[in-house]
Amino acid sequence: MNKLREGVPAFHSLLIDPVKQRARAHVPKPATRFSSAWRGDDEVVAFLNHIFTEAAALCASDVHFHDRDGWTEVRLRIDGDLKTLYCLDQSASRFIDDHLRAKCSLSPSERQMPLDGRFRFDLGDRMLDVRVSIIGTDAHGDAQSIVCRVIDAGLGNGTIDDIEMPSSTRNALAVALQATEGIVLVVGPTGSGKTTTLYACLGTLDRPEKHLVTAEDPVERRLERANQVIKNPQRNFPTILRAFLRQDFDVCLVGEIRDAETAAIAYQGANTGHLMLSTLHSKTTASTVTRLGDFGIDPYTIGSATLAILAQRLERALCPHCKVEYYPTEGELHTLEHEAGYVIPASYDDGAPFHKCNEAGCEHCRDGRKGRIPIIELLVADDAVRAAIACKDPGAIAEAATLQPQFRALQHAALDWSLAGRLDFHTAMKVGK
Ligand SMILES: [Zn+2]
């Protein structure tokens, strides 16, 4: 760093050591926990410090504060479901609202317009990134609905090694990400974990010698080395992407392809020496090709620039302590083989059955489930797939996919997890339907 070819230059006082600078920037600021600011707010401050610490401990994704008739309901979203943890006296509501607004530097008097803000909460050994959304729920703005999305900085920004998937899938995805040019798409409905997988792909590529850029709405995870640009009314995704194409980047993450213009520029980037990563709302890898066609991308461009399409769902995993072995009924076996087209492996007859949930739960879980598991269908664009895409032949795409060793249709991937004891059999049967 700062290697100079000759002597002490006239600009030497401008040079800094980025390592020391970074260390300075990471010293936690004392105000990153809630502290008393007004008379009588001590208990609310203690409660806020407790609830965000508890949210991190329980791996909650969101903290909800909803004003009801005369009381405030505090809920956490854990493994996709909301759970009411506390019911507070209404007198706490205004203090909670004031403290959260103060933390995000939001106006205390704006009671009608929806407000967005964010703050960092100090967990002691790491930071919690909290994104706050506030909206008044009555005519006077007295009652509020406050939702805080919490992102544990200690868990985020991982790589694809941190995402549970079969090793054949991981290896095929890693190969696709090694390309210097093309596009990798992650598809699925809202709440399917696409963003986590997309950032894991970016995390895999995060190296000092790479220029990473992201266009997002809003910025989901902060990356130290990436240039992250937020979409707003003055600059939409196409405007940001056009500017990026003049910024000599290696890898670009586009939050979501939602329109024809964004799709066209993303594919332009993918065809001109850049690695593009993005998400799309579609159900399966095959329907993604149709959706891209609807956006006006011609089949030849889709075939030539697409590296891989990853379709994903997220389901609640079985508790490892109380899961129950399960042998499907005759009718279910018939459906499995003839309707789902699932080939039951030989190990099944040797005493390795499917699994089901123990709804009663045990001391380690609430209801027989613990955590969530991604179910992944990965289509790699090889020669056969490219030819099928160019011919706009969905049947041929599906046929080419089944020849790929890592390819498992969503429902088959889910049934594999049930055999492995990670997913309930009946939940697996419904995946991808
Ligand atoms: Zn259990």
UniProtKB/TrEMBL annotation:
Instruction: Identify the Pfam families for this entry.
Output: T2SSE (PF00437)
Q: Which CDD domains match?
A: PulE-GspE-like
> Where does this protein come from, organism-wise?
Cupriavidus malaysiensis
The UniProt family comment states: Belongs to the GSP E family.
Which InterPro entries does this chain map to?
Answer: AAA+_ATPase, P-loop_NTPase, T2SS/T4SS_dom
Q: Where are the transmembrane segments?
A: none
What is this protein's name? AAA+ ATPase domain-containing protein
The record's annotation in SUPFAM superfamilies points to: P-loop containing nucleoside triphosphate hydrolases
SMART domains, from UniProt?
AAA
Keyword set includes Coiled coil:
no
Keyword list (alphabetical) reads: ATP-binding, Nucleotide-binding, Plasmid
Q: Which domain of life is it from?
A: Bacteria
Keyword check for Nucleotide-binding, yes or no: yes
Please name the Gene3D superfamilies in this protein's record: 3.30.450.90, P-loop containing nucleotide triphosphate hydrolases
Boundaries of each AAA+ ATPase domain copy? 180-320
